[in-house]
Amino acid sequence: MKIALIGYGKMGKEIEKIAIERGHEIVSIVDINSIDNFSSEAFQSAEVAIEFTQPATAFDNYKRCFELRIPVVSGTTGWLERMGEIREMCDKEGKTFFYASNFSIGVNVFFAINKYLAKIMNNFPAYDVYMKETHHVHKLDSPSGTAITLAEGIFENLERKTQWSETESSPEILSIHSFREGEVPGIHEIIYESEADYVSIKHDAKNRKGFALGAVIAAEFIKGKKGFYTMNDILKF
């Protein structure tokens, strides 16, 4: 499969490595210093674009790909207030978009466990719940997209929590404590605490390989498809 990479930081380089290992061809790379590559014949020959950039540029990147009828796989977070527009383009204009706040298979298993634990804990109001997330110092958004996805999974299943905050505290608020340290790929922990004890679940990424592999698997999955997709469409939890 012919793949274009949009964003060539540490994630982009890891995706390139894994894509080649799986027999794919990287036909074009667009980075901050090579924006003109969007209009190149090489980019336009791509069967899918994999995008990991910044919140400020992500939406425009998607639109450029859509104009060229190139399906997009994206893991960029921090722009989700415009997700409705992307879904509409997929539904009404036949565009193809695959989004995940985290492409790691392990994290997506963690998402499922998080929802199940919240459903159990809905019956035990003595336990309050909060979250900790730690990432590298280069990450711009806070909390992480993964943390927000985890929060949404809690809200779906735990009636006493309805919103998240990094600064405010009240019974209906899920507190998220975000830390930015060194080159940490990503750590997420959900803690339920009562006066008697606490129950926690945790995912700790060793490196970026799991994220990159998931993105390439997503690109393979959407080839020849139309519409909006997420990791649930692959994993079917």
Level of helix content?
Answer: 25-40%
Kindly provide the radius of gyration, computed on alpha-carbon positions and rounded to a whole number of angstroms.
19 Å
First-residue to last-residue Cα separation: 27 Å
Structural class: alpha/beta
The overall strand count is 11
Explain what the structure shows.
It contains 8 helices and 11 strands. It is α/β, with parallel strands linked by helices. A 6-stranded parallel sheet has the order 2-1-3-4-5-11, with helices on both faces. A 5-stranded mixed sheet has the order 7-8-6-9-10.
Q: Key terms for this structure?
A:
single chain; 237 residues; alpha/beta; six-stranded parallel β-sheet; five-stranded mixed β-sheet; 8 helices; 38% helix; elongated
Task: Walk me through the topology.
Layout: E1 2-6, H1 10-21, E2 25-30, H2 41-44, E3 48-51, H3 55-67, E4 72-74, H4 83-93, E5 96-99, H5 105-121, E6 128-135, H6 145-157, E7 163-165, E8 173-180, E9 187-193, E10 198-204, H7 209-222, E11 227-229, H8 231-235
Parallel strand pairs: 1-2, 1-3, 3-4, 4-5, 5-11, 6-8, 7-8
Antiparallel strand pairs: 6-9, 9-10
Helix pairs in contact: 1-7, 5-6
Give a concise summary.
By secondary structure, this protein is an alpha/beta fold.
